[in-house]
Amino acid sequence: LGLGLASDTVASTLCSVIWFLLSHPHQYQRLQKELDTAIADGDDPFDAVKHQELHFLRACINETLRLHPPLPSNGTRQIYPSQAGQTIAGRFIPPGTTVSTPAYSLHRNQDYFSPHPDQFLPERWLQGSQFDSHDSSAFLPFSLGPSNCVGQKFARRELSMVLCILFKSFTLRFADGFDAEAWPREMQDFFVVTRGPLYVQLTRR
């Protein structure tokens, strides 16, 4: 059963989405245009029905989770010592062996996401995109299988609501003096990723 410390993981992802969008003005403008089209002034930005129309917002969230997974090393699994071992993808795993699939590395593997697996390209998640390789089965920010994160739908709903109200109501930019280029390099993996503060200035639209 996967439960990844919901408040920390959602907070980490929110910061990363904001950082990516402020670092890519064209994507920022596209998202704001989508929000202005789907949610008229006076509409409820927390309306989950409206969120279903926000395809580019969902793509931005997915692309952020791909590049900045909140659990970059992911959880570990172990072949029970009492078992005889297992063969997985043609490789024998002896009993007692601990294995893991680091999401950070898998999500940047060009065999599954290309071209430009290290670049923020939300378009790769949109229907009809023409990317060379896009294997959603290699996308596991919430893990996979019977032990995946039980709170992933709730986390996605939280992300959509907060990002929707932020980018609908405010114009965001990096705060004066903030070193935006250095921020992602401050990543530390303590199972849940941590980074330094993200300083952003908000101006009501």
Automatic annotation (TrEMBL):
Protein known as: Cytochrome P450
InterPro entries: Cyt_P450, Cyt_P450_E_grp-I, Cyt_P450_sf, Cytochrome_P450_monoxygenase
Keyword Plastid assigned: no
UniProt-annotated binding residues for heme: 149
Cofactor needs: heme
Family from the record: Belongs to the cytochrome P450 family.
Entry keywords, A to Z: Heme, Iron, Metal-binding, Monooxygenase, Oxidoreductase
GO molecular function: heme binding; iron ion binding; monooxygenase activity; oxidoreductase activity, acting on paired donors, with incorporation or reduction of molecular oxygen
Pathway: Secondary metabolite biosynthesis
A Pfam family this chain is assigned to: p450
